[in-house]
Amino acid sequence: MDSALLSEIIAGLKDGSVVPCLGAEVLADVVSPPTLARMPATSDELIYGLNDGKPMAQKLMYEFARAAMNIELKRGRASISNFLTKTYGETPWTRSALHDWIKHISPRYVIDINRDTQLLDSYAGIPHYLVQGCARMSGLLYRFNLYQSDGQRYTPIQPEDATEALPVLFKPLGSPLPQPSYIASDADYVDYITELMGGLAVPPFVKTLRLNKRYLFIGMRLDRDTERMVMSDLIAGAAPEGGWAFLPEPTRKEIKFCKRHNIMLIEESFQALMKEPDAAVC
């Protein structure tokens, strides 16, 4: 990786002008001791986990949201939430190297489309805000849960009580903590993306915070409609120089998405971020 580009990215992460966007591949090195089973994070891994380790019909294997909708119709919505909470909130996992790297930098704003808690753990001891996606909840003005952490515990707050003084962790697809909330099935995505497009799924202070930011896509494949649609709305207001995406062997859809948002393709593994000597941030 070009050292000048790496230095530019690292400097931007430190000063808050660059926002890291974390995808499933950042969890590829996470396992559960003592079995060493990998944490399910990709679409296929989640489908196998949801279906007791067995594949589903080909049309359902296309995407986790489609498979989750099928299971929800058969067993109820609670079955999806229980699976995700058990997987990410009750099972012990080793740490991701990328999340330890993020912990050292402590960016001011991070978007993480995974549903695990490693990002939250990276900010343990640091006061911050957590924005947690939610869907299909009647009577809510917004489609998010907003919490403030004092470094030890989370407290629900209203958007008008937040400022730009603290780091922001945005978990659009939810997490088991502080309270379980997930975007998982097709119906969840339809509701959540509709609210994103309507401006009700992003807190007002985050809409201000995100203006003219550049984005760094790390471990996130963009060949599925759900990820592209969610991210298109979350990076609204980006700087003209949209940012960068680590995408080895990008697909046609990924190339088209990056071109549309002025995102420079880096056709190598995101591991290059952590291997370069100049990237040391201790």
From TrEMBL:
Pfam families: SIR2_2 (PF13289). It comes from the Bacteria. This is SIR2 family protein.
